[in-house]
Write a structure and sequence with these properties.
- The protein is of the alpha+beta class.
- It has 24 helices and 17 strands.
- A six-stranded mixed sheet has the order 12-14-13-15-16-17, with helices on both faces. Strands 1-2-3-4-5 form a five-stranded antiparallel sheet. It has a four-stranded antiparallel sheet with strand order 6-9-10-11.
- α16 runs antiparallel to α17 and α20 packs antiparallel against α23.
- The longest helix is centred in the first third of the chain and has 29 residues.
- The two termini are about 50 Å apart.
- Bound molecules: zinc ion.
- Zinc ion binds next to loops.
Length: about 600
């Protein structure tokens, strides 16, 4: 391992899990542990807890579990080495740079350096003669010089390898440039620039680092309209929010989520410095969590065409359980002077994105629609209403059926009443009748959920099995006892003295056996026996499973007695396994008989 184990021990001694998690999650004590809303899935009632005594966290909602290091790896999306660095920084320690860790850290640092250098190159090129076409394009988008500077916009030359040559001259190797996604190798091993003849937008993460680029094609060129850096170790599209590095400092009390990067820029320029966008991908749970860390309210403002409306509904689905308030800003359809909605060649209303809208009507008009944007429930009901013909009986019934489902899904009874009344009024029935339908629907849903749970409870063994197939237990009875032994050892390492010769080969589960031995070796050499100390030696899945094991209740008052009981079970099961193996293999059985004969001087056979 690259980082010395003594360092990890010292780091864990100085990084209490409650402090580490408390950095990201508000925790409240309840029944001997600390509870909070899980940062890994969206929820409003806490099912995530931290047990200081065992130095682990576990979520009963999504099943995520682990120690201090795995928590930081997971929440910051870091490798083991990088998570250790983050924790060390907070604990005022410096990670000794050795071997591989240095190499890995070095690789990422080189990629980030190359990105910064490329951003400088593109920005400089924009001012040069070769940048004229991109400058022209920027003018047509009416972006001011100050905006160009704030966002670090640049121009990629209309040539094959200008950036490649520039960065190679700076000492970057070909491999580094390929790893950074800035350069592509052709079939013959020659290199050329990934981005050519494009407007370049550096993508800067919340910590202010250029992680990669997005780019827009110039008018008249061929190729993809938008092109991003491919996923690299520094650039993960599904977790990046464009503009958040600036928007996180806004004085406004919400964030506006738009579809396009250029929309972000033009809205910032118009004074809406709270605007962000995903990187041309649909909103993910990771995005939602990242946003929730920076705002209390999110306003979705996607394009007002069919695609935009579908994306809005999908995003509302992702945001269903978020802690943020969610509103939807639907831009009005463009009209002519007489107020008629303008149509395209398919007789659909013309699309209008936030950039168009701001240019046509100005910031004050946008402010107005922003203030008037609908809450997500109103938006969903409005959308439902326009899908059905409410003058027709069948249309009304269909609308009511859908509206009942939508309203029944609302958690708060007050919201159910308010939106129930609105839906009822729209369909011309009484609010009372509607709310009865809703409650009936909720009851039947509850019954279904209970039945599902009962079915699950009836098959406890599948419940107790590790989630990952390769970790599955072969011998459930023994495995439960083996889990108990590990739990006791983490709670009270002194018990290792009472465990006699118990060793890896007695365990039916290779994973539990391996962990037992690792912890025992640590105990014997006076090192930390926290589960988190093994983070570097276990896969994240193994860590997740083991923290769940350690989290289960254990009778501490009678820990010695419990240990002996566990060991007795493990022994019995081991003998059983041996007998079965012997029965299946006559040669093995004969050998075993011979061994016994020797041991007991032949008296027993
Ligand atoms: Zn969770």
């Amino acid at each position: 391992m690259a980082i010395p184990e003594q360092f990890i021990d010292e780091l864990l001694a100085r990084s209490d899990i409650a402090d580490v998690v408390g950095h990201y999650v508000r925790l409240t004590p309840k029944g001997g542990s600390l509870w909070g809303c899980c940062p890994f899935h969206n929820e409003k009632t806490p099912s995530f807890h931290v047990v200081s005594e065992r130095q682990i966290f576990k979520c009963f909602g999504c099943g995520k579990a682990g120690g201090a290091i795995s928590f930081v790896m997971e929440i910051e999306n870091l490798s083991f080495v990088d998570a250790v660095k983050v924790l060390a920084g907070r604990a005022g320690m410096t990670v000794p740079e050795t071997g591989i860790s240095q190499e890995e850290g070095h690789k990422k640092a080189r990629i980030l350096d190359a990105n910064r250098e490329a951003a400088r190159f593109y920005h400089g090129y924009l001012q040069s003669e070769g940048g004229a076409r991109v400058r022209e394009y920027i003018e047509t988008r009416r972006l001011a010089p100050k905006t160009v500077k704030t966002f670090g916009l640049g121009a990629a030359p209309a040539a094959w390898d200008e950036l490649t040559r520039h960065l190679t001259a700076q000492g970057y190797t070909k491999l580094e440039l390929i790893d950074a996604g800035l350069v592509v190798a052709n079939k013959n091993g020659g290199l050329y620039d990934k981005f050519r003849a494009r407007l370049m937008l550096p993508v800067i993460d919340v910590s202010g680092v250029v992680t990669g680029f997005t780019s827009r094609i110039l008018p008249g060129e061929e190729g993809a309209k938008y092109l991003n850096t491919p996923d690299t170790i520094a650039f993960k599209k599904g977790r990046l929010i464009y503009g958040l590095n600036l928007a996180k400092n806004t004085k406004r009390d919400n964030l506006i989520l738009v579809e396009g990067n250029i929309d972000v820029i033009s809205l910032h320029q118009a004074g809406f410095d709270n605007t962000v966008a995903t990187m041309g991908t649909a909103l993910t749970e990771d995005h939602a969590r990242l946003l929730a860390r920076h705002t209390k309210e999110l306003v979705i403002c996607y394009d007002n065409d069919g695609a935009g409306m579908r994306s809005t509904e999908r995003a509302l689905g992702i945001l269903k359980n978020t802690t943020m308030g969610v509103r939807v800003l639907q831009l009005p359809n463009p009209c002519d002077a007489a107020g008629n909605i303008l149509l395209d060649e398919k007789a659909q209303p013309l699309k209008q994105d936030p950039d168009d809208f701001i240019k046509k009507f100005g910031p004050a008009a946008f402010e107005k629609v922003l203030n008037g944007s609908a809450g997500q429930n109103d938006y969903l009901l409005d959308n439902l209403r326009v899908q059905f013909d409410l003058n027709d009986e069948n249309g009304r019934l269909e609308f009511l059926r859908k509206a009942v489902e939508t309203v029944a899904a609302l958690v708060s009874p007050i919201e159910r009443e308010i939106f129930g009344n609105k839906a009822a009024a729209a369909a011309g029935i009484s609010g009372h009748a509607f709310s009865q339908e809703v409650e009936q629907y909720r009851k039947s849903q509850g019954r279904q959920a209970r039945k599902k749970q009962e079915r699950r409870d009836l098959t406890p063994t599948t419940q107790l099995q590790p989630r990952e197939r390769e970790l599955r237990y072969e011998n459930m009875r023994s495995a439960r006892a083996e889990e108990g032994v590990l739990r006791l050892m983490v709670l009270d390492p002194l018990l290792f003295r009472e465990a006699g010769s118990l060793g890896t080969e007695d365990f039916s589960s290779p994973l539990l056996g391996k962990v037992y031995t690792l912890l025992k070796e640590r105990y014997e050499s006076g090192r930390s026996t926290q589960l988190a100390a093994l983070t570097g030696q276990l896969t994240p899945q193994e860590m997740n499973h083991l923290a769940g094991v350690i989290d289960q209740p254990e009778d501490r008052a009678n820990s010695r007695r419990a240990l002996q009981d566990y060991i007795a079970i493990i022994e019995t099961e081991r003998v059983k396994r041996q007998n079965t193996a012997q029965a299946a293999d006559p040669l093995l059985a004969a050998r075993e008989r011979y061994r016994e004969k020797k041991a007991y001087g032949g008296a027993k056979v």
